[in-house]
């Protein structure tokens, strides 16, 4: 055991257990509107599934293209391209599915989403049970940020009103229905329901026995590809990371005690 004037954090994904070895949602999206699909070599690969999603959309500059891709291609964004063919403008989103959602689920911003039954409406309690039946770790969809509403509309056609979860910071956006107000949070893409009427895209708190559509979500297990991606982002801000078979080594100004093998790897990485 030795000491270094570096803090080396070993981030490991050896506990990952997952059935499939690729993300089906990116594969399907790539078949419809993408090109150059590359499936990961195996489920423990440090690189995920990759695709170039091509949109017939003109963007002003690279930053505008990046914002567009982050909203319309909700996997890990690698880079963006802006091209032109005659009078047609295109925005190409190079994305990577670092995580792996179960078949039938769509990966968005590090989470997996699914409508278990597009034609069925349910009370709040029934919605929770439907999500648990769809996946043991699933729950009603959570509003991670304000832009996710538009992404849900793009990928789940026919959404009208759904049950949602959110932090208290969203309370200031809640609208009154004046007819069925309660304690259960919901999102009305279409403001017209036979029990209430509000502006479209309204966040509301209503009685839990109202029947709405159900959108479920669960957090997939961490993968080597996700750890590698996060390590690259860390490298852009702080220090370069060292990729190893079980994850990444991250350094900072502190001390570390570990095995000689790990220290040898680190010495190579910091030269």
From TrEMBL:
<keyword id="KW-0732">Signal</keyword>
<feature type="signal peptide">
    <location>
        <begin position="1"/>
        <end position="19"/>
    </location>
</feature>
<protein>
    <submittedName>
        <fullName>C-type lectin domain-containing protein</fullName>
    </submittedName>
</protein>
<dbReference type="InterPro" id="IPR016187">
    <property type="entry name" value="CTDL_fold"/>
</dbReference>
């Amino acid at each position: 055991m030795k000491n270094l004037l570096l803090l080396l954090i070993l981030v490991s994904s050896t506990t990952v257990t997952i059935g499939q070895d690729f993300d089906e949602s990116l594969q399907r999206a790539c078949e419809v509107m993408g090109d150059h699909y590359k499936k990961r070599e195996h489920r423990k690969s440090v690189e995920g599934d990759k695709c170039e999603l091509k949109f017939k959309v003109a963007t002003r500059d690279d930053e505008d293209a990046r914002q567009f891709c982050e909203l319309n291609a909700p996997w890990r964004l690698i880079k963006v391209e802006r091209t032109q063919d005659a009078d047609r403008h295109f925005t190409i989103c190079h994305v990577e599915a670092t995580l792996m959602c179960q078949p039938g689920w769509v990966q968005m911003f590090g989470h997996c989403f699914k409508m278990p039954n597009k034609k069925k409406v349910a009370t709040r309690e029934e919605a929770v049970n439907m999500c648990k039946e769809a996946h043991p770790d699933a729950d009603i969809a959570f509003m991670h940020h304000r832009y996710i509403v538009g992404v849900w509309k793009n990928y789940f056609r026919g959404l009208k009103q759904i049950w949602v979860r959110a932090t208290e910071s969203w309370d200031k956006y809640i609208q009154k229905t004046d007819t069925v107000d309660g304690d259960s949070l919901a999102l009305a893409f279409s403001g017209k329901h036979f029990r209430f009427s509000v502006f479209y895209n309204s966040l509301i708190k209503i009685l839990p026995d109202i029947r709405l559509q159900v959108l479920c979500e669960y957090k997939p297990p961490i993968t080597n590809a996700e750890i590698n991606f996060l390590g690259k982002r860390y490298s852009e801000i702080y220090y370069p990371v060292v990729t190893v078979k079980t994850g990444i080594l991250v350094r900072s100004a502190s001390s570390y005690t570990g095995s000689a093998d790990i220290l040898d790897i680190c010495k190579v990485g910091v030269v």
